[in-house]
Design brief:
Chain A: It comes from Spodoptera frugiperda (Fall armyworm). The structure holds three protein chains of three kinds. In chain A, 3% of the residues lie in helices and 44% in strands. By secondary structure, chain A is mainly beta. The longest helix of chain A has 6 residues, at 202-207. By secondary structure, chain B is mainly alpha-helical. Among the domains of chain B are: 73-175 and 367-419, no CATH class; 183-328, no CATH class; 559-651. Helices cover 61% and strands 3% of the residues of chain B. Chain B contains 30 helices and four strands. The relative contact order of chain B is 0.06. By secondary structure, chain C is mainly β. The longest helix of chain C is centred in the last third of the chain and has 4 residues, at 282-285. Classes of the chains: A mainly beta, B mainly alpha, C mainly beta. Chains A and B meet through β1, β2, β22, β23 and β24 of A and β1, β2, β3, β4 and α3 of B. β25 of chain A pairs parallel with β1 (20-23) of chain B.
């Protein structure tokens, strides 16, 4: 009887990005059919799936006057729209213009027009994200000087017009943000999580005060929008995260009563945020406790700073990447425990030099590392 | 992804569920990396830096690496298995629903057999393909065959032990059948020898192995027939063994005797055999001696033949038959331990699964079958059927029953996996839908993101979404279709999909686009649609306005000027016209004002005048003056006519 | 003999299935077209018994013709030639060898991007054929009349509909009827150049698509249309106004309809809800005089009075296509299977 467990489980495909500098972000569109990349070379590129597993470059343009940090897609209900943010202190909204007799169209190139340039920030804009579509066409940016800005396009047909709805100062450098994707507006008010990469000095810690919350050394803040006061307020600060944060991401809600937030800091963390019922929460001095937060997982396997955390579509797998030049996949088991299910590494196998890169678009099978301890049985 | 198993501490602790490490090709990432998820199981790894200060980089660090899971079930042959088993799975869910009110075990058994026949057909297809294939392709197919042989074997045993209705729970006949079916060792030789029916068959090199094999498989009659073909078959020694085989008591629930009574006659028969053996009459025939020892359930005899078989399953049936034929189906653990212990070789994965099954440790069985690389097909379907049969109980460390959670998690994962496939998505959806509420929430996320390249696909997605009452998905697909038509400037398609999605915002957007198109090109798009649309026109004010405006065009074209004029006035006075459309609306009055017969009453004319003054900014001076003049002239002639009283029924 | 149903899994969702007519012997071969897969194709199959002595026949693939996009319609232009519409906007005429069906299909004509949104792709959603002529429709709302003999576009009705067209049927050589995504039906004189329909009416008030249209084999003025809602509508085109009779039939969209070629009273329908029904339509075609002396037709209000039979237990997935030849019916479904139903009484 042969071996029942397979050794080849993954296939890989290399794409030459052809950016002239470091790539900072890769974002897929709603359908996973288009991919946008941005880089320190100040360019943004859009790649389209050719339907046969390959990717074709369909647009490439100089988008900013500085490194482009992040790129993100709007919901397709609003058309083909992306937003970028940059070291040049701006964020920009781009729209693809439908098939025209433009010069590049024969070559399969498409035109993206800058519809709006958001210039309110005085420092580098570190992250940009479109809001959940049921809130309308919303955009949030954050900047190195710690200001969160929420913009709205009142007329979705007119992407040139964005009004700055809210400006929320946080007093610490903000590196990343994530919208809570919960669709239930009744149960969950609009919610944002932001992460700070402020180094841990005593000064910084002391300065993190204000609002109505008490001093908190945490690096992740939760903001919620109140319909009644029409304001965004900081409703929590996750004291469990004390180290600078590089990335955060809410998992899809799937109708749960709680939210899961992945945090990339000195380790990979998964934090369960459970809203506490109004009646039980209201204190007498107005300082209410909104959430019960619990670190459900903290993984130090990267042995280094973690840069990125990213959920798959259904929130069942979390990918993380760190300074160890490895990507790890974490999966929730049926009893809600999380464990690592795969590691992707660059380490060359001794005595076996991997094939040189070829700019092809077919998938090739990947071999598992020749390490007997990784195989369950033989 | 099915690379994992659950993390509950396994009682055996045999397996180390370490994550697998994969080596990225190309050595392309020297520094930091980032990652981004695409659709389904695809994600991208890219080189990434957090440093603000630009550092010169080598362009070698400039590759994206797309990684995707390799899914065996997506190969064409296995897609048949996926589709066919989906039908059986859905029937099983119905049967389980029915089982809530009445016992439905017979139906479950029928469905379990159906699953096995699906596996059998799949194996036949794989063998047929493997016979034709070459190279890597052949190797792959052979490894699939190995996988599905094991699955068939385990499923069958599971069916015997947990699903089948066995009279008195006496498992032996079923166990023998299982051994014969899956480990048909020596069967061919036996058939050959019996077919030839020649005296002196012992010349065949496998003669004795075959005879012993038949005994071990419990085919006593075949063994006796073979013994008769021996050239010394008529000798006393042979007759003695034949007699012992013939007189062996066979236990049957319907035999009318109790286990106790049976045990007495069995013991008696064994004593007889023992005395024959100790009388040393068989000393000249060591093979016959071996057979006698085997039928007496002698451990060392079994041990001595163990090496002739590839696995201990081959001798399991014989061992039970000759040591404890009255065993009930949940009393096989000891027999399994005895047989497995006869030879100290490395354990195979199948060994572990069969052992766990015979010991009744279903938790461990499921844990083990999750390691099979069939993308969870087997674990999902087997767990589901055992769950519905009420045979599966799994406790967590707090002794809470988590069986349904285990079942759900497997189905959810399998369903999501299939939903990634271009064609199998509808199969995946039916799995997710059978697992509410989370299944439907997941289905919602995936379904909404299904790439839609044709309207036929959109309509199919909407039909499926409606089937499972995922109205939000249906509406979202419509709105996205609307947006796509809008950005391409196709007003008809945009209006149609906005109305189909009953979306107020989208229909208002589409209507604005149509009106804007008219102001620029003087052609009103989608008139066929607007003139036949029903209550959907009420979705938004703009759409309603557009519809009425279109009707105004129709009336004007058919030269029903009076009606056209009335409609136009009502559009002007209703004030739902968008700002940019006032110019058009006001100028549309001009030809009607200039018509031979006055069509606006004086009141109408006043209304238009009022609007013109209120909205003077929408018209440039020259046009406004022209309109004022026409209005004044019309006022003059209508006032005259109305004053005469010749004006017939104004409204 | 009772109905015999036999399913075969083919690893492709089948969008269209068609018997290949034979002259003197029982039909054995058929076409399938697939959809919604990474690689779609048109296949030729034959029915054969793997073992001589066995009665059971299984489909065996004879040839495969790969196409881009989904196969949206297959209709015969001649005995051995089919017109195929594809979701990439192409229309092809393919020929199967009369003598050796195993021989690969030969391409006779190929209209690339016949339906299009300029540079962007647009689905050719269906076509109909009549005496060698082909009428095609697309999501672009255009109608094209092609000659299947000369391979040329004879006439185009640009913007026949502002929405996408989903079904088409030749009423006569010079007249076609189209149905759009909203159930808006239009009749076109293909000789006319004014791009205006000669008549237009709605399938139902629900604004759902007209998924298929056929006419009665012996009374071509009787038109039947299937709706996305599962309803079936009948018109008598001799009437000036178009009184329609609408039956709520299937629980989801009607995917294909066919009158039995040998018995015009038998109608077969299949649906997205996985049902395959036979209808006794005898009553429908018996016209009677109404109270005002006008020719009335049988209202289809009650489908029970129509004698509807379900031929197979409903599948869990959509049945997309059916084709009947004497006592045998072929079905293609979204569960990646084809079904052969034998001993059908007609």
């Amino acid at each position: 009887m042969g071996e029942l467990t397979a050794t080849n489980l993954f296939e890989s495909q290399t794409i030459l990005a052809d950016h002239k500098d470091l790539i900072h972000d890769v974002a897929y569109d709603f359908y996973g059919e288009r991919m946008a990349t941005c880089s320190s070379d100040q360019y943004v590129k859009v790649w389209d799936s050719d339907g046969n597993g390959g990717w074709r470059l369909t647009a490439s343009w100089k988008a900013h006057h500085g490194s482009v940090w992040k790129v993100t897609w709007a919901h397709p209900e609003f058309g083909q729209v992306i937003a970028t943010c940059s070291f040049d202190r701006t964020a920009a909204i781009w729209e693809e213009v439908g098939d025209t007799a433009a010069s590049g169209s024969e070559k399969g190139l498409r035109t993206w027009l800058k519809r709006s340039n958001l210039v309110d920030s005085r420092t580098s804009v570190t992250d940009v994200k479109f809001g959940p579509k049921h809130l309308g066409l919303l955009l949030v940016t954050c900047s190195a000087d710690g200001i969160i800005r929420i913009y709205e396009a009142p007329d979705v047909m007119n992407l040139a017009q964005w009004t700055l709805q809210h400006e929320i100062p946080t007093k610490v450098s903000i590196s990343c943000l994530s919208w809570n994707p919960s669709l239930s507006r009744v149960v969950h008010p609009p919610m944002l999580a932001v992460g700070s990469d402020e180094p841990n000095t005593t000064n910084a810690a002391a300065s993190v005060q204000g609002d109505k919350t008490t001093a908190c050394n945490g690096k992740v803040f939760i903001y919620e929008y109140s319909e009644s006061s029409r304001r965004w307020t900081r409703t929590d600060c996750l004291s469990s995260v004390q180290e600078p944060v590089n990335d955060i991401a809410f998992a899809p809600n799937l109708g749960r009563s709680f939210h899961l937030l992945a945090v990339a800091t000195k380790d990979v963390r998964i934090i369960k945020i459970e809203p506490i019922a109004e009646s039980a929460a209201s204190g007498n001095n107005g300082a209410t406790v909104r959430f019960k937060c619990e670190v459900v997982a903290a993984f130090e396997e990267h042995y280094s700073c973690v840069w990125r955390v990213c959920w798959n579509l259904t929130g069942t797998l979390l990918a993380s990447s760190g300074d160890d030049c490895a990507v790890r996949l974490w999966k929730m088991q049926y009893l809600n425990q999380w464990k690592c299910v795969a590691v992707f590494k660059n380490e060359p196998v001794p005595g076996d030099s991997p094939p040189q890169s070829r700019p092809h678009t077919t998938y090739i099978r990947m071999a598992t590392m020749a390490n007997p301890t990784h195989m369950p049985f033989h | 992804m099915n690379t994992s198993s659950f993390a509950v501490d396994s009682s055996r602790g045999k397996t180390v569920d370490a994550a697998k490490t994969f080596v990225l090709p190309d050595k392309c990432f020297q520094k930091h990396v980032g990652c981004a998820w695409g659709r389904g199981n695809k994600f991208t790894i890219y080189p990434r830096s957090q440093t603000v200060n630009k550092t010169p980089t080598d362009t070698a660090d400039n590759k994206l690496l797309n990684i995707k899971q390799d899914i065996l079930l997506f190969t064409p042959i296995l897609r048949k298995l996926v589709n066919e088993s989906n039908g059986t799975y859905l029937s099983l869910q119905k049967a389980a629903e029915a089982a809530k009110v009445s016992d439905n075990q017979v139906e479950f058994l029928k469905l379990s057999r159906q699953f096995r026949s699906i596996i059998r057909v799949c194996l036949e297809n794989l063998q047929e393909a493997a016979a034709k294939a070459e190279g890597i392709e052949k190797n792959n197919l052979l490894s699939y065959i190995t996988i599905f042989y094991s699955i068939e074997c385990i499923w069958h045993l599971c069916e015997i032990l947990y699903i089948d209705n066995i009279p008195g729970d006496i498992v032996l006949p079923y166990l023998l059948e299982w051994v014969r079916f899956h480990f048909p060792c020596h069967e061919q030789t036996a058939a050959q020898l019996l077919g030839a029916c020649e005296r002196g068959s012992e010349d065949h090199e496998d003669y004795w192995d075959t005879v012993v094999g038949m005994v071990v498989q419990g085919r006593v009659d075949v063994a006796r027939a073979l013994l008769k073909l021996h050239s010394a078959g008529e000798s006393n020694e042979f007759k003695l063994v034949d007699n012992s085989l013939r007189s062996m008591p066979v236990y049957s629930v319907y035999g009318g005797i109790s286990t106790g009574e049976f045990t007495i006659s069995w013991k008696h028969w064994q004593a007889e055999c023992r005395s024959k053996l100790s009388s040393r009459v068989l000393a000249s025939q060591p093979k016959l001696e071996l057979i006698m020892k085997i039928i007496m359930g002698d451990y060392s005899a079994f041990e001595s033949i163990r090496s002739k078989y590839s696995s201990w399953f081959d001798i399991l049936g014989g061992w039970v038959m000759f040591t404890a034929p009255w065993s009930r189906r949940h009393e096989l653990g000891a027999a399994a331990a005895a047989c497995a212990g006869m030879q100290a070789t490395g354990r195979s994965h199948l060994d572990d699964m069969v052992r766990a099954l015979l010991e009744g440790d279903l938790h461990q069985v499921i844990h083990e079958i999750q390691q099979i690389s069939d993308n969870g097909w087997f674990a999902t379907h087997l767990t589901d059927i055992l769950f519905h049969c009420g045979k599966l109980t799994i406790m967590d460390k707090h002794q809470t029953n988590v069986t349904s959670r285990l079942r759900d998690s497997l189905i959810l994962e399998y369903g999501c996996l299939l939903m990634e496939h271009k064609s199998l998505w509808s199969v995946g959806l039916s799995y997710l839908a059978s697992c509410p509420p989370e299944g439907l929430r997941r289905a919602e996320l995936i379904l909404e993101r299904m790439p839609v390249d044709t309207e036929a696909k959109a309509m199919k997605i909407i039909a499926e979404a409606k089937k499972y009452e995922l109205i939000g998905v249906a509406q979202s697909v419509c709105r996205c279709m609307c947006a796509r038509h809008l950005s391409a400037g196709r007003a008809g398609g945009a209006l149609c999909w906005a109305m189909r999605g009953r979306s107020s915002a989208a229909s208002s957007r589409a209507a604005h686009a149509a009106l804007a198109h008219y102001t620029q090109h003087a052609v009103l798009p989608a008139q066929d649609l607007l003139l036949t649309a029903g209550s959907a026109m009420l979705l938004s004010d703009t759409l309603l306005f557009l519809g009425k405006y279109c009707d105004f065009h129709r009336l004007y074209k058919t030269r029903e000027f009076k009606k056209a004029a009335q409609l136009l006035v009502s559009l002007i006075t209703s004030k739902i016209a968008p700002e940019y459309f006032w110019e058009t609306l006001l100028l549309d009055t001009l030809p009607l004002l200039e018509s031979d017969e006055p069509v606006f009453t004086s009141n109408d004319t006043y209304e238009i005048m009022l609007c013109l003054e209120l909205r003077s900014s929408s018209l440039d001076g020259e046009k406004a003056d022209l309109l004022r003049l026409a209005l004044a002239r019309n006022l003059a002639r209508t006032a005259l006519a109305e004053g005469d009283g010749t004006e017939e029924g104004a409204q | 003999m009772p109905l015999e149903v036999q399913g075969t899994f083919v690893s492709q969702k089948i969008s269209k299935i068609r018997w290949i007519a034979e002259d003197y012997v029982e039909t054995k071969c058929f076409f399938t077209g697939s959809w919604d897969d990474d690689q779609n194709s048109i296949k030729v199959w034959t029915l054969e018994s793997p073992h001589e002595e066995e009665e059971v026949e299984y489909p065996r693939q004879l040839s495969e013709y790969l196409v881009d996009g989904d196969v949206t319609q297959i209709k015969f232009t001649e005995k051995n030639k089919i017109a195929v519409s594809l979701s990439n906007g192409d229309v092809r005429v393919l020929e199967v060898s009369l003598y050796d069906k195993q021989f690969p299909l030969k391409e006779v004509f190929h209209w690339k991007k016949l339906h299009n949104y300029g540079a962007e792709q647009c689905s050719c959603t269906s076509l109909d054929t009549l005496e060698g002529d082909i009428a095609t429709i697309g999501e672009d709302g255009n109608v094209n009349i092609l000659s299947g003999r000369r391979g040329e576009v004879m006439h185009t009705i640009k913007g026949a509909d502002s929405c996408s067209l989903h079904s088409i049927c030749f009423i006569k050589h010079t007249e076609v009827i189209t149905g759009n995504v909203r159930g808006h039906m239009k009749i076109w004189d293909v000789r006319s150049t004014n791009n205006k329909p000669s008549a237009a009416f709605l399938l139902a008030g629900d604004e759902l698509a007209a998924t298929c249209i056929i006419h009665h084999p012996t009374q071509p003025h009787i038109i039947l249309a299937g709706s996305e809602s599962g309803a079936l509508a009948v018109w008598d085109l001799r009437m000036n106004s178009f009184p329609t009779s609408l039956v709520n039939a299937h629980s989801a969209g009607v995917s294909e309809m066919q009158f039995h070629p040998e018995n015009p009273h038998k109608l077969l329908t299949c649906s997205v809800s996985g049902e395959l029904w036979e209808w006794n339509m005898e009553a429908m075609t018996k016209s009677s005089k109404g109270p005002d002396g006008q020719v009335m037709w049988m209202p289809l209000q009650d489908k029970k009075s129509m004698m509807v039979n379900s031929l197979i237990p409903a599948l869990h997935k959509s049945i997309n296509s059916l084709h009947c030849d004497k006592g045998r019916i072929l079905c293609g479904a979204d569960n990646e299977a084809i079904y052969l139903i034998k001993n059908f009484k007609y």
